[in-house]
Design goal:
The protein is of the alpha/beta class and 420 residues long. Helix content is 34%, strand content 27%. It is built from 13 helices and 19 strands. Helix 4 (103-109) links the parallel strand 5 and strand 6. Helix 1 (13-33) runs parallel beside helix 11 (299-314). The structure holds NADP nicotinamide-adenine-dinucleotide phosphate (NAP).
């Protein structure tokens, strides 16, 4: 049986999951794939794992994987940006195949690999939605289709925080602490709660689904840290959950891509994707609406997708991603042209006439209200909460910047889009 020699970079969470699966399934996988799989070398900063059972050589030099002519596939699981970028690029230049779970490098530098890919393949299934084979699903399983939209919950940390705020009636800060305690959030949670990690993943989904270059800088990103437990409660009274969504929509020749916290109607399955779970909903012309869901992170779940990429390389399936490296076919627009319904919360001094002033200002800007209620609170304060009918982003923004100057306002206006 012909063999495939693997060079593994990193010995952290995902790499250890990969080694665990490999240790348990090596024989079965080799039989299924018709190729003998062998881990020839492991390179990482420190040797945290006994590699004896794999017969692999350990090195602290990442370059040793690239320089070794016997290595066919480099599996990059070190994370971070620059060292991983250097490793992937060097391996491709040496015509090695590369498997990576690194969404940051693919989203930000994916286009630069264009000139470096020759006979080697670059695969990154684990970079988006962990265990869910969404790139295979979109790139191969749905290749006949055009996509009108892709909507995902692709960041488990944000989803856990908003779910916890809902279930425990806890604040954002309390829920973040709980996520950190359970190992669902990093000590520095910025990438997750600011929407950057989800934007990396959306960039990859968008490139793959629409055959576009990677355009991370065009994804509009809004984090979740301004969501309060009151918003979650009021949204629930209105029939919605608040979820961290990543959405790309196509209208004619234009794509609009955004990551933001959204009100999602309880009648949608996405509203019930809770905790660290991920999900992706795809709207397509022939296959219709498809829904994928599963664990978006975790050692074994993510490693499962890494092994899947390795299997495709072993089967010599050819890369499904050449179109990613193509030229821009569709423009990417900013959302000020788009329309959406919005949830608005105005925390005000409860004075006579303020309700009418706010609704009047909205009406003067052509923004109509679908539902509205007022909650009186202690100390002569009130929250006016409403859902608007669809309004142009720019019109609403202009109107809110005007209302924001009203003296009765106690806090900045809360505005959360409703997922259409
Ligand atoms: N964890 C998940 O659930 C998950 C899910 C989806 C995707 N991913 C992606 O998978 C990748 C790996 O994540 P992870 O959670 O496994 O990371 P991790 O636990 O932090 O492990 C990273 C490993 O790489 C080593 N390393 C880091 N930089 C290095 C360098 N410059 N040279 C040599 N070794 C280096 C580290 O060594 P030391 O520990 O000795 O420093 C560690 O063994 C990331 O791109 C991540 O975004 C992770």
């Amino acid at each position: 049986m012909e063999s495939i020699n693997i060079g593994l970079a990193g010995l952290g969470t995902v790499a250890q999951g990969f080694l665990e699966i490999f240790g348990q399934k090596k024989r079965v996988l080799s039989d299924k794939l018709g190729r003998e799989l062998k881990i020839a070398k492991v390179a990482s900063r420190s040797q945290k794992v006994d590699l004896e059972e794999f017969g692999a050589i350990f090195s602290t030099e990442l370059s040793s994987l690239v320089e070794d002519p016997a290595i066919d596939v480099v599996i990059e699981l070190i994370g971070g940006e620059q060292d991983a970028l250097g490793l992937i690029s060097a391996a491709l230049k040496k015509n090695k195949h590369v498997v990576t779970a690194n969404k940051e490098v693919i989203a930000k530098h994916g286009n630069s690999f264009r000139g470096e890919i020759d006979s080697g393949q670059l695969r990154f299934e684990a970079a988006v939605a962990g265990a869910i084979p969404i790139l295979q699903g979109i790139g191969v399983g749905m290749v006949a289709n055009d996509f009108s939209s892709i909507t995902g919950i692709v960041n488990g940390t944000s989803n856990y925080i908003l779910s916890n705020m809902s279930i425990e009636a806890a604040s954002f800060e309390e829920s973040l602490k709980q996520a950190q305690k359970l190992g669902f959030a990093e000590a520095d949670p910025g990438f997750d709660v600011d929407g950057i990690d989800a934007a990396h993943k959306l960039t990859i989904l968008m490139a793959l689904a629409y055959g576009q270059p990677f355009s991370f800088d065009k994804v509009v990103t809004e984090g979740i840290s301004h969501i309060t437990s009151s918003d979650i409660q009021y949204a629930s009274e209105l029939g919605f959950a608040i979820k961290p969504v990543a959405v790309v929509r196509r209208s004619e020749d234009t794509l609009a891509a955004m990551v933001y916290p959204a009100l999602v109607g309880f009648d949608r399955i996405l509203s019930r994707v809770n905790g660290v779970m991920n999900a992706v909903e795809v709207e397509s012309d022939y296959a219709g609406r498809l829904f994928f869901s599963g664990p978006g992170a975790g050692s074994l779940a993510t490693a499962s997708a890494v092994v899947s990429d390795l299997g495709l390389i072993a089967r010599n399936q050819g890369s499904v991603y050449p179109s990613l490296m193509g030229t821009e076919k569709l423009g990417v627009s900013y959302p000020d042209q788009s329309t959406s319904c919005c949830y608005l919360r105005f925390d005000v001094v409860d004075e006579k006439g303020i309700f009418a002033r706010i609704t009047g200002a909205l009406s003067d800007s052509g923004i109509s209200i679908d539902e509205v209620f007022q909650k009186n609170r202690d100390g002569g304060r009130a929250s006016i909460v409403m859902i608007t009918h669809p309004a142009r982003e720019k019109d609403l923004e202009d109107c809110l910047s005007n209302v924001g100057k009203f003296g009765e306002l106690l806090q900045p206006i809360q505005r959360i889009r409703v997922l259409s």
